Amino acid sequence: MGLLERLRKEWFILGIVLVIAVARLEPAVGVKGGPLKPEITITYIAVSAIFFNSGLSLKTEELTSALMHVKLHLFVQIFTLVFFPTAIWLFLQLLSITPINEWLLKGLQTVGCMPPPVSSAVILTKAVGGNEAAAIFNSAFGSFLLGSSSSVPFTSIFSQLFMTVVVPLIIGQIVRRYIKDWLERKKPPFGAISSCVLLMIIYTTFCDTFANPNIDLDKFSLIIIVFIIFSIQMSFMFLTFLFSTRNNSSFTPADTVAIIFCSTHKSLTLGIPMLKIVFAGYEHLSLISVPLLIYHPAQILLGSLLVPTIKSWMVSRQKALKLTRQPKAPVKV
Q: Are 26 and 209 in contact (CB under 8 A)?
């Protein structure tokens, strides 16, 4: 394989390295309130573009089928809202005997209680080729469910989810009806478009991370927290993979992809306002926020790096399942 061909194949990984490097050099460009205005261009325009893109690319039958996949929805929501925070709480009982700052540990506990994000899990699922429709439903439903039961204003959550998820998705489906033949004939690179949007999200996320004064820890504590967060993410991704690929699970490889990302990702957009309300007046609020501020870019970075590996597994697994379902040729006597 030539160098140019290799670069073309690995463009997304190279893009991740490039945007993180650019964010590190000049984070002020992509921070909230900066020249790029990510609070508008990312939170509203980019997220809306993601779901408009999904509405264009997904067949209506796929969305309907995903809505009725109750077993998958129950798995994701129970793992996210019950198993995840419980497992983190048990893990923190062990960490409490270590010299790690107690407020950082409280921050880790709050990370476990957060809902999935609306955008990143959907983009990563789409990039792999997984069950995108199921990822859309669970990401939006998880944010709506936990947000509506928290102290964060219900109307604010509902209106933002409706305008950035539901409306673009419906518009995409309507447009698809009129250009369906063209889409099937031309086959636009929907996956590549979503990947480019994800690079924008990674860039602005790391701009915020590098420019954030709250992440002001000694190097030892920072390294320990980063290591713990990556370990949690890897462990839970592996657990969801194991649970969803058991022989009696009935989940397809595409379902497994959606489960891995939706069950392990946590929302920064909803999380930070929740922390500010729950811990209002706490002098250690900045320390409590640190784990979530690290978890968010870490989940996007780790998920993006794992896209080629997970995609390779999914494709090979689908081929193997297809072969096992083919009728065997009769044996000639």
A: no
Entry pTM: 0.79
Exposure letters 189-227 (e unless 16+ CB within 10 A, then b): ebbebbbbbbbbbbbbbbbbbbbbeebebeeeeeebbee
Q: Which are the contacts of 134, defined by CB distance < 8 A and separation ≥ 6?
A: 66, 69, 72, 73, 125, 255, 258, 262
And the tokens for 278?
């729950």
The predicted-structure confidence for 291-320, as pLDDT tens digits, reads as follows 888 888 889 889 988 998 999 999 999 888
Q: Contact 143/118 with Cβ under 8 angstroms?
A: yes
The alpha carbon of 111 is separated from its chain's Cα centroid by a whole number of angstroms, namely 14
Could you report the per-residue pLDDT of 209-236, keeping only the tens digit for each?
788 766 666 677 778 888 999 999 999 9
Instruction: Give the orientation angle of helix 190-211 with respect to helix 285-325, to 10 degrees.
Output: 160
d(CA 325, CA 321): 6
State the Cα–Cα distance between residues 90 and 44, nearest whole angstrom.
37
- pLDDT value for 187: 84
